[in-house]
Every structure is written in C-alpha cells, then in structure tokens.
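Reviewer 2 asked us to include a model.

Predict the structure of this chain.
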Amino acid sequence: MIDYIQHKEHSVQGRYVTMAHLREHWLPNLNGLAIDCLGQSVNSNSILGVTMGSGANRILMWSQMHGNESTTTKAVLDLVNFLKISSPLRDSILEQCTLYIIPMLNPDGADTYTRQNANGIDLNRDAKELSQPESRILRSAFEKFQPHYCFNLHDQRTLFAAGQNKKSATVSFLAPASNSEREITPARGTAMQLILAMNRMLQSKIPGQVGRYDDAFNDNCVGDAFQMQEVPTILFEAGHYPNDYMREKTRELIFYAFLEVLQIIVKQNIELFDINEYFDIPENEKSFYDILIRNANRVNHNLDDVTDVGIQFKEVLENGAISFVPEIAAVENLDAFFGHRIIECSNAKDRESLAANKDLLDLVASAEKK
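Predicted model (structure tokens):
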C-alpha cells in the first residue's frame, strides 16, 4: 500500500498556490530533473515544464489553467515527489512513460486568485484564437511533445452533486467530445476507458462521489481541441469532500487517480474496460449549497411559509489566504437541494447555533423572497 503522507508536498497546502510558493518550497528539491522555461505569462511570470521518465508512452499534463483552481497543482507536486523515490510502480512508470508536466499554466491568475489570466481571458476558451501567450505556450508544448495522452487538470465548485443524490461530486471526469455529434471516436473511447479505471479505484475510497462532467462540444475548449487531434484527453475536476474546503483530501484522491491511470497505461490494460459503462457514471448536477438554511421563516418572519435560504461561499483573497464569505444564492423552497451544512430552523438547537453566528444571522435577516 502506498503511504500518501510520505509523498505529500507538505510545504504547499491550502487553496492559494502561486508560482512563488513553488519556487520557494518545491522547485529547490527537484535537483537532477529536466526543467524547461516554456515562456512568459502576460505579467512576465515564467511558465515551467518538468520532464520525467523515458518511456514510449508520452503523457502531457497541465494544471492551474484557471488561476483559482489549485487542487490538482498540489496533487501534481505529490506525484512528482512519488516519482523521485524508487519503487516497483515508480520504476515501471518512468521506464514505460515520459511525462511532461506543466504545474502552473496561469501564474498571473494564480497570483490574483482569478479564473482568467492577466488580460481577463479564460485560457480554456482560447483554443482556436490562441490570443494569449499562455495558450500559445500550451499549444507549442503539445505540438513539440506530441503526446499520446493529455490530462487537463481543474477544480470544480462545491455546488455539484454526483448525479441526483445527496453526495458531493468530490472527483469528476470528462472524456471531451471532438465534434458536435459527440461521437465516440477512438481517442475519446480510450479516454473513457481510462476514466473507468480511475472510477473503479475511487469507488473503493469515495463510493457514490464520482461524477461525469457535461460533454457539450466546444472547440474553443482546450480539451475538445486536443481530442479533435485524436489524442485521448481527460478532464480532471477536483471537487468538494465533506468539511474539506482547503481541498487536502481531494488532493490525495487526485494523486491516487494519477497513479491508477498511469498503471493502466503502463500495463496496457485499457481494453479491459467497457466504453459503454462510461455513461453509468452519474452526470454532475448543480444541487448543493454550502449552507442550506431550512424553514428560514422561523427566524425571518418577513419570509413566506416554508422558505429556505441557500448560501454559497465566495472565495476571497485576503492577506495571502482564501476566506470563504457567505452570500445568499437563493430564497425559496429548496426541498430538491442539498447542503454541505444544513441548519433546520424548526429545530431549537439549530436556531441557537444560527443565533450564535452573527454573519449568518444577519444574512437570514436580510433575505428577501425571490
């Protein structure tokens, strides 16, 4: 059994992860690895690529294309740490695969904790125009490296459930379509099979908490664009694990997913998985609030009977850390929705708990029927 704690990069934790953090804590420990400067971001931050292994299976991975999506970056650091220590699995991966890893494609967005780059452009909607230096750097790496597989690494919001149930989509995947008909091309089929391998493993750790992302085709998206090039491309979405807003547990699960998919590629066991089972993975549903206050009319008497308040956290960068600021997202009957935390105002104990939280109490007091 793999001891994850042995490989975790403990110096980089939390939600706010920047290139400065990597330079200070992680990069100095990469002696002997091939590290390239691929170019500069809009704000002249260096974008780096790390090569590991010498095998025939070429795998391109990039993370933090969206600057406020850092969980997979942390998992990438953990994976590199794992690949630095000899073990049978590590040795087989490096003998059979060559990994080209871009740990942070959007360092400017990471600095300001924004989805977009410094020009306000979503890099994942720039696959056709290639208007941004970061987009051109990724495309150049793709064309030069000529990967056999691509891993497109992201975070997703806390509002997603894994299907129509009350379990959060802690990890979600997508085998992007390569045309508007969403045909299962050979490349897309391979991506589906690799996702099924990871899903099988994850079900033993987080049963019912793996989701499937919407596969609507958009050729401006990088994953769709690379799938169009007949390179099996997988979208990873790191989501919410209960009480894990720093995404440290999700980080661990993504690390295990990396190891699983690499093992399958090394062993060439891809064909063991039935493509048709891909669609059995439940599609993500937008059905969670960070806090769901039920029967809020018991506290705010200006509301109608049986009125609930759904609250989502806004992630705010303050003094080098992320704060989670509650904001009202819905005021209505929310019986069909779930909450990562539920406050039932018909319950005296929950009302006392709410009364002790001035910020939440003020929000409920200000809520208006929508």
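The mean pLDDT is 96. Residues 308 and 335 are 8 Å apart (CA to CA). We have added this to the supplementary material.
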